[in-house]
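Posting this for the archive.
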Amino acid sequence: MVVSDSQSTRGMQRGRVKRYLRYVLRFVGAVVGFLFAIWVFIGIISLPYIDDPPREGGDLPFEKRVSIEAFQRDVEPRILSARNEIFSGSQSLRPETEKSEISRLYDGWELSSQRVRGGAQSPDRVEEILGRYLKPLGYVSIVHDQDWLVWRDEKNGGRVEILIRDQSLAFRYDTQDRPSDGSVPDPRVLIPNDSRDIAGYVSDSLPSIWDFDRDAPRFPETDGSEWAEKRQSIEVFQREVEPGILSFRDEIVGDSPYYVAPSPSEMETRNSYPPPEYWLESQRVKCGPRDVGQVIEMGNARLNPLGYVLVYDYASPVPGVGHYLAWKDEKNGGIVTVILREKNTEFSYKIGARPSDGSVPDPTVLIPNDHRDLPDPLA
């Protein structure tokens, strides 16, 4: 039998199509298998979170939930009473976030409380107190163990959480998605309650002005213009310069009440490239409001003789951000920062990469100075 050229060509084409289909099927199978493996992997790593209590809104339709205003008037005072009784014997109640706030969430509004931490308590005692105050409000206990207590408003949404760790207890609450009943002009403005937030929050790090005001001028870096090995040593700074900076701090604080961040002054080092370089970051201090002009005058008088000049003077138009002042040692590196707001003033300093002159055995250990860190009034 003689096979024509056209038949031979068609046979070859059918062979190519079959091989092509096999390749396509293998590729599709590989993709499906890969996606299935990812799905299984995600399922496995999600197992520890399956029992995580829900954070979504309550069972009621959105418009029928207790409003954000009614929560503040009728529910929140009872939650705060529970918090106050829980911590009634604690002598070291400390805020871990700045303040409570209301923000947009989905169709409505969410109130997120300030988080506060106090001394450790028995979980059973805490649970008894929470039950006494929260059950009449419609909250139910959904988590109860030695590390975590959670009560939830099943109808309206929102939780009260207690985290127990490090010989202490943290307390917070939220509302989740709530409607506004129109009883206040702006639902974002909290209804006044003197018991809601505890004074004394100071952040461990300098608040970046760009986080709040994207139009702000660039904040200066701590690094100096001089070669690192030629800069004033870390030891000379502590002996000769730092006392003058601390005098400026004391003049700002005066005899008024103040608060400090939990972290004390500390030294950091970088040993990866010889010679080692050192950074000193101060304790952060917050006191009452101060006059900008007077602070600038005091700062120039105290800091200019030390080589620091005012390089940043910016009053943000964004509410609550404040007026940022910074004096810098341009040659050796280092910044002294003061933030002035309507209700408070913050002070801190940090020096840039400095060498050691070898006058102390371990430059990472701060040279003793009883006046460097102020006592913690919340300790």
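The helical segments are 5-46, 68-86, 123-134, 234-253, 292-303. The chain is about 30% helix and 25% strand.
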